[in-house]
Amino acid sequence: MKEARTALRYAKAILNLAKDSGSEALVNDNMKLIVETIAESDDLQTMLKSPVIKAADKCNVLNALFGDKVNNIVKGLFNLLEENKRMIMLENIAKQYTVIYDSHKNMQVAKVTTAVALTKELEEKIQAKIVALTGNSASIENIVNPDILGGFILRVGDVQYDASISNQFNELRKEFDNGHYIPKI
């Protein structure tokens, strides 16, 4: 809990710096790159968490890894985390930054669970459904789950729309179980 609040404070400070220089979108892209890179590399995760590796060495690795790919504000974050011996918080800070950036820009993230990966046509239809449900557009995060059989489950904030085949089967099963089904024979 304490670590989450600290990460949020760092993220807010970075967002303020980025707003002052007009580079908040670029820093957001950098933060997403950092989160993806850390998530994909077990070695990088281990190195950042290791109490044996010096903070300066961790900073050198991050600068070598992200050198030309990230903004100076992000490089400054690496140095600040090195000074404060908080390199382990980098991933949490990057995640918090993207959350508060989206909030700052009034952007929503829609999680769409489908049986197969989304195509462009499906994304457009889902975007239309998001606008119908919430009144705003959102960036779409696709989660593939073959267990829903077909259709999709859309979650935007606290609104959920379930148009999956498995949900329709469950509703039909409930109707049969409750005895509301009357055969027309």
What does this structure look like?
With 185 residues, the chain is α+β, with helices and mostly antiparallel strands. The chain has two domains: 2-104, Orthogonal Bundle (Peroxidase, domain 1), CATH 1.10.520; 108-177, no CATH class. It contains eight helices and four strands, in the order H-H-H-H-H-H-E-H-E-E-E-H. It has a four-stranded mixed sheet. Helix 1 crosses helix 6 and helix 4 packs antiparallel against helix 5. The longest helix has 20 residues, at 2-21. The chain starts with a helix and ends in an 8-residue tail after the last helix.
Question: Which features characterize this protein?
Answer:
185 residues; alpha+beta; Peroxidase, domain 1; 2 domains; 8 helices
> How many domains, as an integer?
2
What is the strand tally? 4
| Strands in their spatial order, largest beta sheet | 2-1-3-4
What name is given to the CATH topology of the largest domain? Peroxidase, domain 1
Low-confidence stretches: none
The CATH homologous superfamily of the largest domain corresponds to N-terminal domain of the delta subunit of the F1F0-ATP synthase
The outline comes out as elongated
How would a crystallographer describe the biggest sheet?
4 strands, mixed
How many DSSP helices?
A: 8
Strand content: 5-15%
The end-to-end span amounts to: 61 Å
Residue-averaged pLDDT: 85
Strand/helix succession: HHHHHHEHEEEH
What's the CATH architecture name of the largest domain? Orthogonal Bundle
- In angstroms, what is the radius of gyration? 22 Å
Helix fraction, binned, reads: 55-70%
Structural class: alpha+beta
Main location: membrane
Pfam families: OSCP (PF00213)
InterPro entries: ATP_synth_OSCP/delta_N_sf, ATPase_OSCP/dsu
Membrane topology: Peripheral membrane protein
